[in-house]
Structure formats: structure tokens, C-alpha cells
Design a protein that fits this description.
Number of strands: 28
Strand order of the largest sheet: 1-12-11-10-9
Number of domains: 1
Helix content: under 10%
Distance between the termini: 35 Å
Structural class: mainly beta
CATH superfamily: TolB, C-terminal domain
Radius of gyration: 18 Å
Number of helices: 0
Length: about 300
């Protein structure tokens, strides 16, 4: 099934200056950088590519939500034409960006930006469509809601064909991240409980972090590492990194009351957002001490900047 497309050329992007502060955890060789859009009330970092470019959204002092691209130390505001809400959710090594926006009627749409051109994504007949993740092959993951109110995961291929991803008997589904092998991670809901999953060519593997009451995988790297948030019984939100070999690393931004990782690049760096003690939300970049060696693997994402 093919999407409904509306395409515009993006013009008039607004430049800003990055404000970052460093926090270190010497015990685990971690370096966290705080990401705040200038003068924003809240900042959310959603994804990072192999070039180190970061996308997300920020809330202005007046309450309006805008998408952003942070590249080379400068912010670029991203607003979908005719929107009242925009969030950039994913960026690949080509610099393509996907995300969501709400129109003047508060209906939600997905979008992609390729070579400066903005295109809306709507699943045919759906009441809502989102675009959450994207790989270097330009496959886009997301969620749509059918007329019966059920949520479905989807993959929109580079050939503009939708494929629905639903776990059996789930009342709600969402596809979040996709790597270059086409492996998808996301969530599904059964009997009011949210479970994480890894989907590989039709086969689901459930993902549950030990001790968690909620697990939500957001991104999967080219080699198969997975990151996202999880909740514990005390109501706290934490981050996790699940290695393709099985070990789980859990983490929190220092002094944060909640940590929500949402993006992971091939080098292993993670972005997300956290809530500080004063209740304000900031983006973060965790520069990991280790680096992945992809060699000449065809699955390795390479920075495609000139």
C-alpha cells in the first residue's frame, strides 16, 4: 500500500547556537553533554547519525513545539508547513530527517525531509500517522491508527510501499527504530502492559529489561545494539543499552530524576532527554568511551557529508 504524499521545499530555517554543559561519571568513563536549544523551555534530543548530527524538538517559551537539527554546533529550526507542532525524530547518514507534525486541525502526520524537500506521510485511511525511525536505505518506521482506533506499526520502504508490523493479539503496536539490515525495534501492548520487541523478517523477539515494568526499545544500531527507556516499580525512568551479545547496561544521566534515551549511532553514542531536579527537560548526548569497529562491513553506516 502506498502513502499519500504532500511535498514542499523547506525554506527559511532559523540558526541558533548550541549551549552544552559537561557532566562526567569517572567510575564508568562516561561523558554526558547537556543539549539545550537557546531560550527554550524544554529540549528533547531524539536521534544522532554517524556524522554526529542530532535531531529533536524544543518547546519555546510560548509553548510552541518545533523540530530542530543540531549540526556543527549550530541549531536549525524545523517547522512543517502549516503545522502547530513539529518534532524531528530520526536522521540517517545521508542527512535525511523523519518526524511528525500536527496540522491546524490537530491531525498528526509523518514527514521526511530529503535534499531540502519536505514530504508528508499518511497511511491510507488512517486517522493518525507517525514517522519514528529511518535507516540509510531510506526505509521509515512508525505507527498509524486505523478507523477502529487500533494502533499499528509500519515500515514504509524506499519504494514507497507500506508494511504493517503487528504482534498477535496486541491492541496497540509501534515501530520505532530500523537498521540497515531491516531489523525493527518497537513496542506492543497486551492487557494494558507494554512490552518491547525486536522484529526480524517476520519473527518477533520480546525485550524485557530485568526488574522493569515497562520496556520501550527506540533504536537499533547496524550491528544490532538496542537502546531505549524502561520503568521500574518505583515509578523511575532509566535508560538501557542491550548489546547484540546479550549483556544489558542500565544508566541514568547524573542527578536526573528521569532518563529517556532515544537515539544511537554506529559509533555507539546515545542521545535522549532527561528531567533535572527542577523539573526542566534537557536533551543529552552520551559520548561512550568505547568505539565500534565496523571494518568494511556493508552494514556499517558511513557519514556521507562532503
Amino acid at each position: 500500500m502506498r502513502p499519500h504524499w504532500t511535498t514542499y521545499l523547506m525554506l527559511g530555517l532559523v540558526l541558533g547556537v548550541s549551549k552544552m554543559a559537561r557532566a562526567d561519571d569517572d567510575h564508568e568513563n562516561r561523558a554526558f553533554l547537556m543539549i539545550d536549544f537557546p531560550d527554550a523551555a524544554a529540549t528533547f534530543a531524539n536521534d544522532i547519525n554517524s556524522c554526529g548530527d542530532i535531531v529533536g524538538r524544543y518547546n519555546s517559551a510560548g509553548g510552541q513545539s518545533h523540530g530542530f537539527l543540531l549540526s556543527g554546533g549550530e541549531f536549525i529550526t524545523i517547522d512543517a508547513p502549516g503545522s502547530i507542532f513539529t518534532a524531528a525524530r530520526a536522521i540517517n547518514s545521508r542527512g535525511d530527517i523523519s518526524g511528525i507534525y500536527d496540522d491546524l486541525k490537530t491531525r498528526r502526520h509523518g514527514f521526511v525531509i530529503r535534499d531540502g524537500y519536505f514530504s508528508s506521510i499518511d497511511y491510507p485511511g488512517a486517522t493518525l500517522t507517525s514517522a519514528n525511525g529511518m535507516n540509510d536505505r531510506r526505509d521509515v518506521t512508525g505507527r498509524y491508527v486505523s478507523e477502529d482506533g487500533r494502533g499499528h506499526g509500519h515500515v514504509l520502504s524506499a519504494a514507497d510501499e507500506f508494511r504493517t508490523i503487528d504482534f498477535q493479539d496486541a491492541v496497540d503496536n509501534e515501530a520505532n527504530g530500523i537498521n540497515n539490515r531491516g531489523v525493527v525495534v518497537g513496542r506492543y501492548v497486551i492487557a494494558g502492559t507494554t512490552y518491547g520487541y525486536r522484529w526480524d523478517d517476520g519473527e518477533f523477539t520480546r525485550i524485557d529489561i530485568p526488574g522493569a515494568v515497562f520496556t520501550w526499545p527506540h533504536r537499533i544500531s547496524p550491528r544490532g545494539d538496542i537502546t531505549g527507556p524502561y520503568d521500574t516499580a518505583d515509578g523511575r525512568r532509566h535508560g538501557f543499552l542491550l548489546s547484540r551479545h546479550g549483556p544489558v547496561t542500565t544508566f541514568d544521566v547524573p542527578e536526573a530524576t528521569a532518563t529517556w534515551p532515544s537515539g544511537l549511532n554506529p559509533q555507539g553514542d546515545i542521545v535522549g532527554n532527561y528531567t533535572a531536579g527542577d523539573g526542566r527537560t534537557h536533551g543529552f548526548l552520551w559520548i561512550r568511551g568505547e568505539r565500534d569497529d565496523h571494518g568494511d562491513s556493508e552494514d556499517a553506516a558511513q557519514c556521507e557529508k562532503d
